[in-house]
Amino acid sequence: MKLRLHLFEFEDLPWFPATIRAGMMDYLRFMISWLGTYRPVAPLLAEGLRRTGQTHLLELGAGAGGGSETVLAALRAQQVPRATILLTDLYPQPTAWADVARRTGGAIRGHAAAVDALAVPDDLPGFRVIFSAFHHFAPPQAEALLRNAMAGGQGVGVFEGAAKSWLEIGLALTVLPVAQLLLTPFFRPFRLSRLVFTYLVPIIPLATMWDGTVSILRMYPPAALLALAQRADPAGRYHWQAGQLRHWWGPRVTYLVGWPTPPAA
Q1: Is 152 helix (H, G, I), strand (E, B) or coil?
Q2: What is the pTM of this model?
Q3: DSSP letter (8 states) at residue 261
Q4: Which of 12, 47, 92, 117 is 20 to 30 A off residue 64, Cα-Cα?
Q5: Could you give the CA distance from residue 62 to residue 105 in angstroms, rounded to a whole number?
Q6: To 10 degrees, what angle do helices 18-35 and 94-103 make?
Q7: How far is CA 250 from CA 71, 178, 218, in A?
C-alpha cells in the first residue's frame, strides 16, 4: 500500500478523556506483549547499543509500555545483560508504568513528567526508541524527531509492529476488536472504568478500531523512512538502515535505525 493519509487519531487529541486513552493503551500493551510483537528487533537494537556504547533505552511515546518487557528480555538474550528502559510520553501513564516497573524489578521505569519526542530534555540520555507511535508524526515532525536525536548525539530506532497493507486494516476492523472484547477482563492493573467503557458504553473498542485503522494509513514504509532520515541528515553524519523483520509465524515489523558514524581517520 503506497497511500498515506494523515487522518486524526483520538489518542492524539488533547481534550480526549484520559480514562478512555488509558483503556486503549492498556489494550495495546496487552496485545503487543502477549504477541511478542517487537521480539524480532532485539538483534538490531543490540547492535545499535554496542555501536553507541549504551545499555540504556529511552522510549518515546511509550503509551502504557506495551512490548517493553519483551524487548528487555530479548536484549538480555542478545548479551546486553545490563539493559534498562526509561518510559516517557507526552501523556504519562504512571499507573501502568508502575506495574511494569514492579514486574521488572525497576529495570523498566517511567518518567513522571511529560516529554515531547521532538524536544527531549538533555538530562534524559539513552538510545532513543519509539514503538508503534512514529506514524503519529507528519513528515516535518518526523524529521524533527530524528534531528533532535542527532543533535543530542544519540542513536535512534523507529519500530512499527505491522506492515502497511490492506490485510492489516482488515484485521484492525475484524479480528482485533473481537480479541479486545474477549480479553479486556484479563488486563492488569484492573480498572472498573475499562469495563464500563468497553461493554456498557463501548467507546474504548470503537476508538481503538478507528485509531488502529488510521495508524496503518499513516504508517511510513521502509523507503519513506529512509527518505525522512536522509532529509533529516543531509550531511550523512549517521548510518541509517530501514526494512522489515518477520516473525516466524508471519507478522512483520517495519523499522528505521540510525547511529552516529565514526569520524574518518
Answers
A1: coil
A2: 0.87
A3: P
A4: 47
A5: 19
A6: 30
A7: 19, 20, 22
